[in-house]
Amino acid sequence: MIIVLALMITLAGMATLSFTSLEEGAGVEIYGNKLARMAKRASRDAVVQGRPIMIAFDKGGFGFVGETAPGKDGYCPVPKNVKVGVQRWNGGKKWDLALGTNWVFFPTGICDPLHFRLETPDGNMEMGFNPLTGSVIDQAVYLTK
């Protein structure tokens, strides 16, 4: 009976550790998914409202600029251990920090053609966006653990 109990405790501990590592690896995807949802919303809102909508990147995260009634999805705080990089279509393969970047979505439905890289200690995620729809066209997740 004691051996069976010890075996069950060991298996429960291993299961807990594996679920913890899955949550940590998913961290980068949480911010990437939030950025993808905000881009789709910005693209849609720019067309519907007939005015440019911007997503701004600051040292605390990213969010909509000039929104008169910000909702719960208006800003995404990013922890200090997460780096957000941006790659412009005319910048070659160089990744710059997204800090200070304003991503503009125009009333015509067109947005700046940008790629983003979200880096955490557990891995990184790269996302490219379609300039005509604001939706993700390519995405890759690289986990280091």
List keywords for this structure.
145 residues; alpha+beta; minor pseudopilin epsh fold; 5-stranded antiparallel β-sheet; 1 helix; elongated
Walk me through what this model shows.
The protein has one helix spanning 2-49; strands at 53-58, 61-65, 75-77, 83-88, 96-97, 102-105, 114-120, 123-129, 136-143. By secondary structure, the protein is of the alpha+beta class. It is 33% helix and 33% strand. A hairpin with a 6-residue loop joins β8 and β9 (136-143). Mean pLDDT is 82; it is low at 18-25. It has one domain (2-143): minor pseudopilin epsh domain (minor pseudopilin epsh fold, 3-Layer(bab) Sandwich). It starts with a helix and ends with a strand. It is elongated and about 70 Å long. The protein has a 5-stranded antiparallel sheet with strand order 5-4-7-8-9, with helices on one face. The chain has a 4-stranded antiparallel sheet with strand order 3-2-1-6, covered by helices on one side.
